[in-house]
Amino acid sequence: MIAKDYIQLNNERRKKLNKENESLYLDMVVYIRTNANKSEQQTEEVLLELLDHLLKAQANGKTAKDVFGEDLKAYCDELIQEIPAEKTSNHVRFILFMILNLFAIITLFTGIGGYLLHLLFDIGSGSLTFPIGSGISIVILDLLLLTIWIIILLKWIKSSTFKEKKPNKWIEFLQLWLICTVYIGLSLAVLFLMPDFGTTVNLYYPVIIGLGLVLLVATILFNHKYRMTK
């Protein structure tokens, strides 16, 4: 089985936990999974093993703290240290998958949006003109911002675990809204403040849409082969 199979099996077996054990176990799952540098396969195997131990203990009237100790966070930290790092090839696949996704979304959004604005409201010239140097720089900076945003988001999610008192949902929503707003704002700033430089290229919107569809198909095929999301 691969990691995604373990995740599916975990989701099914977790339904057998009572409310208290499920809450504690979910904190452990989130805390351990948010270590992106660790092997996903090994992580999911460990989590399923923990779940099996907990289910057996629950049958005898025990809780997660009875099995793993009062300090669940410290216990998880010990487990995380024992999990090997993710293979470089898997990191490369994930990065390539994210790049394909980003390119497909940007290209389709730009092509369809520009085409409809020109067709319905006669806005624009029916094509997109941009300097290659600026375009490449924007993409690189957007990827950098996306990486930083993902790291911050994972740290924020991890920090929300093992709280004696669950945080207010509205406060969590506002924190998440702020993180996303800053990311979107910086991405737009890069787009609009980047100076023009490099050779200028002119592409008609139907061509851009076609490129976007090619990238979308490539993303779907890549995902189907390596099961990045399923």
TrEMBL record:
Per its UniProt record, what SUPFAM superfamilies does this chain match? BH3980-like
Task: Please provide an example of a Pfam family that matches this protein in its UniProt record.
Answer: DUF1129
Any idea which UniProt keywords this protein has? Membrane, Transmembrane, Transmembrane helix
The answer to whether UniProt assigns keyword tRNA-binding to this entry is: no
Positions of transmembrane segments:
94-116, 128-154, 174-197, 203-222
Instruction: Report the protein name in the record.
Output: DUF1129 family protein
Source organism per UniProt: Oceanobacillus halophilus
